[in-house]
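Progress narrative, Year 2. Work on Precorrin-6A synthase [deacetylating] from Salinihabitans flavidus advanced from sequence curation to structure prediction during this period.
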Amino acid sequence: MITLSLVGIGSGNPEHLTLEAVRKLQGADVILLPRKGAEKTALADLRRHIATEMLSPAPRVVEFDYPKRDADTPEYTDGVTAWHDAIAAIWAELIARHVRDGGRVALMVWGDPALYDSTLRIADRVIARGLEMRIDVVPGITSLSMLTSAHAIPLNTLAGAVQITTGRNLRAAGWPEGAETLAVMLDGECSFQCLPPEGIHIWWGAYVGMAQQITLSGPLSKMAPEIVDTRARARAENGWIMDIYILRKGAN
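Result:
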């Protein structure tokens, strides 16, 4: 049976690879390496660096282009489902072509495969296509862990609960009832602007774990315009951006 290892590689710093991650990548027959467009070449470059410079001997690397999601699909989930099906078709074809007879294939996953990442769902679609395959998951340091480390803060208050959500959910429903701390991911719209800012503290970070890391924090009422401006400038300078933030009510 083919083994597909989904290996979390952290948030952009090769030093954050675990020994298990290195071992699983090292033991792969083939590493599949996605290219996600010219604006995100830095992400592919990091994966290439790991595969060719940190592994010895380096496994064979097969690069492929990611299909783009149709942003015009009326229902967001329908568009994402179609996109995942297209990616699964590419994976299935590459795995069938390059890995046979119980071979081992690996994919490097930004952050961790279990936290707001669709790699595991796509892998299930590959199996549903009839490919006999075992899924092997290696956890990675998440952008959320990197954010709390960068700001030197605990994620939760004493005995407090945390809700992890997306910018889309924040815009659609506002602050979740009963929540004290929110961790907001996948937000390209700076959705914290939709909230009444009084009494909310924000800890924001972009490119967390990478050389160009940027962090800002303070009362949301004061920091919101600065974060919006900083984010726009960083995206223009780098051609892409990944950011994440924590919101907390009643924080000093």
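The CA atoms of residues 128 and 248 lie 41 Å apart. The longest helix spans residues 76-98.
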